[in-house]
Amino acid sequence: MAIDAFRHQSVHTPVYSEWCTQIGVQSNAVHRLEDIPFLPISFFKSHSVLQNKAVVQKRFLSSGTQGPRSTHSLTEEALQIYRVFSREAFELLYGPLEGRPILALLPHYLENGDSSLVEMCRIWMDVSGHERNGFFLDDRKQLIRRLMGLKGCQPAPLLIGASYALLDLASFGPMDLSHVLVMETGGMKGKGKERVRAELHRELQSILGVDLIHSEYGMTEMLSQAYATAERGFVCPPWMQLRIRDARNPLDTTNSKKRGCINVIDLANWHSCCFIATDDIGEKRKEGVAVLGRMDRSDIRGCNLLVV
Hints:
There is one protein chain. The chain is α/β, with parallel strands linked by helices. It contains 9 helices and 13 strands. It has a domain at about 80-230: 3-Layer(aba) Sandwich (Rossmann fold), CATH 3.40.50.980. A hairpin with an 8-residue loop joins strand 8 (about 215) and strand 9 (about 225-230). Helix 4 crosses helix 6 (about 115-130) and helix 8 (about 165-170) runs parallel beside helix 9 (about 195-210). The longest helix is centred in the first third of the chain and has 19 residues, at about 75-95. The radius of gyration is 19 Å and the shape is globular. About 45% of the residues are buried.
């Protein structure tokens, strides 16, 4: 399926077609995953990454605070894919969303607008249908009261938040959220020093009274998400894959390195580009890929990781 997607997009997505031409990759010469070229993620800032003659219905913008923001233009079909796949990716690991209370602590993303993360949470809330679902900005005390009032609820309530917002919530602690599934999405947004993920998790676990902090790996440029529990790597849904490329040779896509930069295959990106070379540093683990940080001199963006 990935090779079929490559052959289609190398013809019908102009910026990707031009990239393939510039690096000397011909469509008919690609027969393995290892031969597929990955588009540098920075192209989402400088070009329209979209198939020919596509009609744009919505645009997702990155949450970056410096320089131009990445833009992912979506067709109506792409929006439908996002609605289905963002639900299925979560439910594959955590079970049904239906009836699960969802509380989203994403103030920066709400304020910036056009966030794929906010849209994902809205989709989840629509599926959940729980009367206590909601987004929260600055009223942390109201959020704590809402969470405490959900003890005994099944499935367990989900609290999803940016790292800085969860740390701000923890400043009201200690508290007992042992009945809550707490998930961080990365991102300090310039509101504090960037944290090593393990350090952040230990602090949140201690103050929020939970045994485990879950993590979501997603970004504006892709329509799918991966999830991690504890110190294991991020686990992808079947239509998504995280691969490791040589940090010194961006055209080495053999996935032979244990540690290097992360390439993403996301077949949900049929309308744009399924093959993205990110600026994230990753390491293969027994289960999945751990995200360790971001390459030097690349942007600190909010949706996906904590810098080491």
